[in-house]
Amino acid sequence: MKSVKLPEALRLVTRGTINFITGKPLAVSFEVTHSCTGGCKHCDKGGIKKETNLMQPEDYRRYQSALKPMVVQMSGGEPLLRKDIFEIARAIKKPNGLPYLILVTNAKLLTVEKYQALREAGVNQFSISLDFSNSLHDDFRGSPGLYAHLESLVPELASLGNDDIVLNTAITSDNLPYILDNYQTACQWGVDISYSAYTPLRTGSMEHFISSPEELEELRSSIIELIRLKKNGRVLNYEWTLWGTYRYFKNGTVPGCKAGRRFLVVTPDGQFQPCSMHKRTYPTREEMLRAFLPTNTCGECYVAIRAYLDHSFWKMLWSNISSRVLARGKDEKPLC
Known about the structure:
Layout: H1 6-22, E1 27-31, H2 57-67, E2 71-75, H3 85-92, E3 100-105, H4 112-121, E4 125-129, H5 136-141, H6 146-158, E5 165-171, H7 179-189, E6 192-197, H8 213-230, H9 239-251, E7 263-266, E8 272-273, H10 285-292, H11 304-308, H12 313-326
Parallel strand pairs: 1-2, 1-7, 2-3, 3-4, 4-5, 5-6
Antiparallel strand pairs: 7-8
Helix pairs in contact: 1-12, 2-3, 8-9
């Protein structure tokens, strides 16, 4: 998450603590559609889908009230394909400012006007995918002209001064040589950046997985450099999530997944999944917990939502307070 003001941070901490004690999820990803404007090589949700029985804004209000998450992602697919995405955001957001609301998007359909309207509807953070800092991004995403659109749009949005945009790079064998370039792009555009790991669970393909000794050494060196650069600002990952990414690629697994309990997915038609890679759906969270948790031994991903929620609750709590609230003063600017 981005830095937050102290009153909002206290509400988030309170909500997270209550959920930890009562067993409610800390984070929920509402996949508002499985349709997408792109056809990414590392994803299984490309193209436009024929979808029926999509949840409506009032349904999202009801689910949010029942689950009471600290953080909500509006994801997909491409959530901006939903014409009612503004109403969905307003339905999720409570008058007290909770939950912390993140829009996950490739930004193909994002404009300054939509950005401002989504902020007014309650979106706290815009997580924009960036695989490459050049036109290779278009090919990897199956979306001609996408990088040029980002190169024009993102700096314009950053210039508005809201500090709510985060580039997200899913690390693959394809873009491994470019992950430090993406940091420099974030600096040039005036936004922050976060890194996550490709998982073959989505596509069933190891083609984009980092596995050779040479690739692993390059990844290790890049992570050391990102940790150094983190001191200057812009890199949002905790140090332990960056090293967790390295261990995931090195070992092919990270045991101890807490999917379903700490985080979960709600599909476009209102079904429950412990994570977006687990394809079986359940009509209620209670049924999902009964059927999934006792036999869950999966460790085959280290995507962002899992990585940030992987440690003990109290370590996560302190990391969030120290790095998001205390470390950056109100007027402090990143050094890059």
